[in-house]
Automatic annotation (TrEMBL):
It holds the Pfam family Kelch_1. InterPro entries: BACK (IPR011705), BTB-kelch_protein (IPR017096), BTB/POZ_dom (IPR000210), KBTBD2_BACK (IPR047074), Kelch-typ_b-propeller (IPR015915), Kelch_1 (IPR006652), SKP1/BTB/POZ_sf (IPR011333). It comes from the Eukaryota. Residues 32-99 form the BTB domain. Keywords: Kelch repeat, Repeat. The keyword Repeat applies. This is BTB domain-containing protein. It comes from Periophthalmus magnuspinnatus. PANTHER family: KELCH PROTEIN, KELCH REPEAT AND BTB DOMAIN-CONTAINING PROTEIN 2.
Length: 634
């Protein structure tokens, strides 16, 4: 009878020890049986190790041909430094990838067919794609038939098209790649004139060699999307001998009704992080495990769309939208192994969380979050701002110790890395940050400090007249607005809503950057005010606030108010119907970005229609009785 042997787990200690011994034999040149010759360098190695990681060497050493018996192998068109990195990986499993080595490393790994190195280099390159290198990455991915790299780079080229089409790398694109880009529906352009200019620049870069492509390139332009003035001026400027051919080709290929490019469809929207839907409120109280919901509201269309939720049930993140309309989230917390603990005397179930240093970029075309290099510190609800070409992560609720809470780090968008900068002067809770005139202003209570990036220095600015926390801040021109929040009564330590002290309005103070002084401004004439649900935003080139006008135990009603600088007056710009936008809760964050409705799912996030009467009245008749709209408790 055959004895059944139970499988046992692999002894990881033995595996590590084996690698260490192989590395020792390589370094001491013990039992080596082949020498790789590259230029003037020699690399004594073991055939077994090389064949294990490389299909190229496996085929060479196991073919049975004369090459398999060679003791010296010449490798041409291989860089010795790059080969050393691959050999080190073969013996240790450690791969050292940097910005300067990743491309030659990928080329060599492709030649030697080292699959693991190829995959790691590919992932590194995909993660590092930005506006500066995306065109080059597109050509690189095409050259080495790396579809993942090519697709990711193409999406970035489409997204950053207005910034990249003048780059030398774009002007040197192959004809095939250029056609692939110009024909794309996903170009982020607001006018077809941008595509036309890109096509002409590419042709004129080497007109003699590229004249054969004149018709095929220009036929990608959607003529009926151009203005009549542009069309007339353009055709008059074409070379006489090519004009008839080009015009014929253009109009022959012209669609009857052109499809707008993706950039022509984008709308400026309010983006709400960590909002609650009507079905989530009770559940989140019970477990705190409801995934973070991200929705956006288009004031023009009065529609709500849903963004992809952050990965891993990530909550309490910092959010920033750059001037180039890139959306980033950073930090936050995630449930620990999806565990739930019966917590406290109330017996309510609470999830156990731990803070993270994650950092993600939102791919608007794919409606998904792409990971970028994590922050240096784990932070819950850090203040994120974009200033002078970089993103700054300031403070955070979770960073333990006063010194750590003061930390500030800077993200270089081109290099995809973080560095520490000068810390905050004090450890603050409830602070808010804005950027104005290439400087960062951090405010809390009655204090404000300004950070000068070029000098890496914090400077104390004028104090406010009131001491408030949990306020919202926004910058508009040379003015900074500090809106709402809770008044701090110094003697008692009590925090009172601004509406409690100011009746039915919301307190507003304005800081004049040029004068370095604060002044009181017109309050916001809100009907009711549930603090701290006030968010300052710049919407359609105007300073606005999005606010909740009801208490938290009432059915949610929201409104957008706009500030008139000349009249020092707030007016109701747009009420937000509860039929469109349901309850956001109280912890949501708000940002403004331009998004593509066609890439988003229109949210069904609204109360049932049977709750509302046709004429919009607060009360209506049901089965012969007068019924009020239900109250909503969040």
């Amino acid at each position: 009878m055959t004895e059944v042997v139970e499988p046992r787990a692999v002894n990881s200690d033995y595996a590590v020890s084996l690698l260490e011994q192989l590395k020792f034999f390589y370094e001491q040149k013990l039992l080596t049986d082949v020498v790789l010759l590259v230029e003037d360098s020699e690399f004594p190695c073991h055939k077994m190790v090389l064949a294990t990681c490389s299909s190229y060497f496996r085929a060479m050493f196991m073919s049975g041909l004369s090459e398999s018996k060679q003791t010296h192998v010449h490798l041409r068109n291989v860089d010795p430094v790059t080969l050393q990195i691959i050999i080190t990986y073969a013996y240790t499993g450690n791969l050292a990838i940097t910005d300067s080595t990743v491309e030659p490393l990928y080329e060599t790994a492709c030649f030697l067919q080292v699959e693991d190195v190829l995959l790691q280099c590919r992932d590194y390159l995909v993660k590092k794609i930005n506006a500066e290198n995306c065109v080059r990455m597109l050509s690189f991915g095409d050259l080495f038939s790396c579809s993942e790299l090519k697709q990711s780079a193409k999406r970035m080229v489409e997204h950053k098209f207005p910034l990249v089409y003048r780059q030398d790398a774009f002007l040197q694109l192959s004809h095939e790649l250029l056609i692939d880009i110009l024909s794309s529906d996903n170009l982020n352009v607001e006018k077809e004139e941008t595509v036309r200019e890109a096509a002409m620049l590419w042709l004129e870069y080497n007109m003699e060699a590229r004249s054969q492509h004149l018709s095929s390139v220009l036929s990608q332009i959607r003529i009926d999307a151009l203005s009549e003035v542009t069309q007339r001026a353009w055709f008059q400027g074409l070379p006489p001998n090519d004009k008839s051919v080009v015009v014929q080709g253009l109009y022959k290929s012209m669609p009857k009704f052109f499809k707008p490019r993706l950039g022509m469809t984008k709308e400026e929207m309010l983006i709400f992080m960590e909002a609650l839907s009507e079905t989530q409120s009770e559940a989140i109280v019970m477990s705190n495990l409801i995934p973070t919901t991200v929705v956006c509201y288009s004031p023009q269309a009065e529609k709500v769309y849903k963004l992809c939720n952050p990965p891993g049930n990530l909550q309490k993140v910092g959010t920033v939208v750059t001037p180039d309309n890139d959306i980033f989230i950073a930090g936050g917390q995630i449930p620990l192994n999806n565990s739930i603990t019966n917590y406290g005397k109330s017996g309510k179930l609470q999830a156990v969380f731990h803070s993270v240093n994650s950092f993600f970029w939102f791919d608007a075309q794919q409606n998904e979050w792409a990971p970028k290099t994590p922050m240096l510190c784990a932070r819950i609800k850090p203040s994120l701002v974009y200033c002078d070409g970089c993103i700054y992560a300031i403070g955070g609720d979770n960073v333990s110790g006063e010194l750590n809470k003061r930390t500030v780090e800077r993200y270089d968008c081109e290099k995809d890395d973080w560095t520490m900068v000068s810390p905050l002067p004090f450890a603050w809770n409830w602070s808010t940050s804005v950027v104005a005139n290439d400087c960062i202003y951090v405010m809390t209570h009655d204090l404000m400090y300004c950070y000068f990036p070029r000098a890496d220095t914090w400077v104390e600015m004028a104090m406010r007249k009131t001491s408030r926390c949990f306020a919202s801040a926004g910058a508009f021109g040379d003015l900074i607005f500090y809106i709402g929040g809770l008044h701090v009564v110094s003697n008692s330590g009590i925090r009172l809503p601004t509406s409690t002290l100011d009746g039915s309005s919301v307190t507003v103070e304005i800081y004049d950057i040029n004068k370095n002084e604060w002044r009181s401004a017109a309050n916001i004439p809100a009907k009711r005010y549930s603090d701290p649900c006030v968010r300052a935003v710049v919407l359609l080139n105007s300073l606005c606030i999005f606010m909740r006008e009801t208490h938290m135990n009432e059915r949610a009603k929201y409104a957008i108010y706009q500030y008139d600088v000349e009249l020092d007056r707030w007016f109701l710009r747009q009420p937000v119907s509860e039929r469109v936008l349901w309850d956001l809760g109280r912890d949501f964050r708000c940002a403004v970005g331009k998004l593509y409705p066609s890439c988003l799912a229109e949210s069904t996030w609204k109360p049932p229609t049977y709750l509302f009467s046709p004429d919009g009245a607060e009360e209506f008749e049901v089965d012969g009785e007068l019924v009020s709209l239900p109250q909503y408790n969040s």
